Amino acid sequence: MKKTAHFSLRYKIGSGNINNLYLSASADSDYCSNLLDRKSFTGYIVKLGPHIINWESQKQKTQAHSTAEAELMAIDSVVRDLKFQTFILDEIFGPDDSPIEIFSDSQAAIALAENDMSNKRTKHIDTKFFYCRELLEQNFIRFKYVDSASQVSDVMTKPLGPLKHKYCIERMFKTNT
């Protein structure tokens, strides 16, 4: 904490062009990281242009059976938050039909969300986590894969070494998620 006392969130008047205020998000999970109950952690960051407007870090309510399922649960959490955020932003700025980019480092979770891959390895995944598939079909969201080393929302799910922590914090406050 001593080394991060100078970190702060600041919103300057006139710091953003109204045309550059688009929603984006980054979602991640840390699979089975709680050693007591083996539940995973979800972390996500929601940005409006370069500004962080919401974030979450919490233990998932149910136990995931795979890394892909834990990541899908994290994506589901951020999608539900984005739906709420767009409701508010549509009231302020008017509707925006462009899809919201969600950055994830899980190709398996993205594939599960984008494709109907019902088989014996995925049939246990609760259907409520496939709400994002419906929003994909409506062009409300789109996924963008980001490699694990570049996943900014890692800082929301697990303790990191000093270099990775610094990288995540610095990237959180840049224009791209």
Description:
With 177 residues, the chain is an alpha/beta fold. The chain has a single domain, classed as Nucleotidyltransferase, domain 5 (2-Layer Sandwich), CATH 3.30.420.10. It has helices at residues 67-93, 107-114, 131-137, 162-172, and strands at 23-30, 41-48, 51-59, 100-104, 141-145. The chain has a five-stranded mixed beta sheet, with helices on one face. Strand 2 and strand 3 (51-59) form a beta hairpin. Helix 1 (67-93) crosses helix 2. The radius of gyration is 17 Å and the shape is globular. The model has no long low-confidence stretch (mean pLDDT 78).
Task: Write a concise keyword list for the protein shown above.
5-stranded mixed beta sheet; 30% helix; single chain; 177 residues; alpha/beta; 4 helices; Nucleotidyltransferase, domain 5
Give a brief rundown of this model:
The protein contains 4 helices and 5 strands, in the order βββαβααβα. By secondary structure, the protein is an alpha/beta fold.
User: Which whole number gives the mean pLDDT?
Assistant: 78
Identify the strand order in the major beta sheet. Answer: 3-2-1-4-5
Number of H/I helices: 4
Helical proportion? Answer: 25-40%
CATH architecture designation: 2-Layer Sandwich
Classify the oligomer.
single chain
- Strand % is 15-25%
Radius of gyration: 17 Å
CATH class: Alpha Beta
Compressed to H and E, one letter per element, the order equals: EEEHEHHEH
Stated plainly, the CATH topology is called Nucleotidyltransferase, domain 5
Distance between the termini: 24 Å
| Structural class by SSE content | alpha/beta
Biggest β-sheet, characterized? 5 strands, mixed
| Approximate shape | globular
What is the CATH superfamily label?
Ribonuclease H-like superfamily/Ribonuclease H
Number of spatially distinct domains: 1
